[in-house]
Amino acid sequence: MHEYEPSPFTSIRDQVALYEATDGREGGTLNGRPVVILTTRGARTGRIRKTPLLKIRHQDAYLVVASYGGADVHPAWYHNLVADPSARIQDGAAVLRLRAREITGAEKARLWEVADAAWPDFPAYRAATRREIPVLLLR
Length: 139
Known about the structure:
Blueprint: H1 10-21, E1 29-30, E2 33-41, E3 48-54, E4 57-58, E5 61-65, H2 76-83, E6 86-91, E7 94-103, H3 105-118, H4 122-128, E8 135-138
């Protein structure tokens, strides 16, 4: 079993710890919007990594957007899911084992509407970066 390696970013590390300790009753929002905790295995290290992400539900799945605030690089959790699409999401007290699938084409265009409704900054992030921002479904 690989060990958990907390984020090097204090705010992320603290939010994950608070969320997990309270089943999301505390630390469960980002700018007033709900978050979930995504757990992945590090692509290079194999260590367990945890990241708070916006909670975006679509039908029976979770939608995650690798926007990284419009940066020109993908977030580490995206690389982790590409290397190993098995993941875990903690949504409040519920812990779900899921599998990620990157979406493309017309499906991605439709799901951008869902994502943009959940987080109105996504269009600005797309405009700010030269990269194609990945969108994934976890079910």
